[in-house]
Amino acid sequence: QVQLVESGGGLVQPGGSLRLSCAASGTFFSFSAMGWYRQAPGKQRELVADITSGGNRNYADSVNGRFTVSRDNAKKTVYLEMNSLKPEDTAVYYCKLQRGGFVTWGQGTQVTVSS
Length: 115
Description:
Structural class: mainly beta
Radius of gyration: 13 Å
Largest sheet: 7 strands, mixed
Number of helices: 0
Oligomer: single chain
């Protein structure tokens, strides 16, 4: 059974930075695509960034150039480095693992950008 645990969220001022981590259990992390999604109050969950098993990255237009997704297969962990944060980045951030037809989500971590 695969489980994902996010960490690193918190309160940060506009223009600040945070680094989210998502640690996975299980045996096929390195073969899985990993994604970061977010959901703000009253809005649908949206893709922020994802990274394939081969390391190809994809970003939402709203975060491109400010956020960086990376993975460490030895640690079974995916990261989201967030810079130049804006109030509109405030949301619960979720990690997703996908391997073929198998998908699992983490519990989410709150990111609040406010002065």
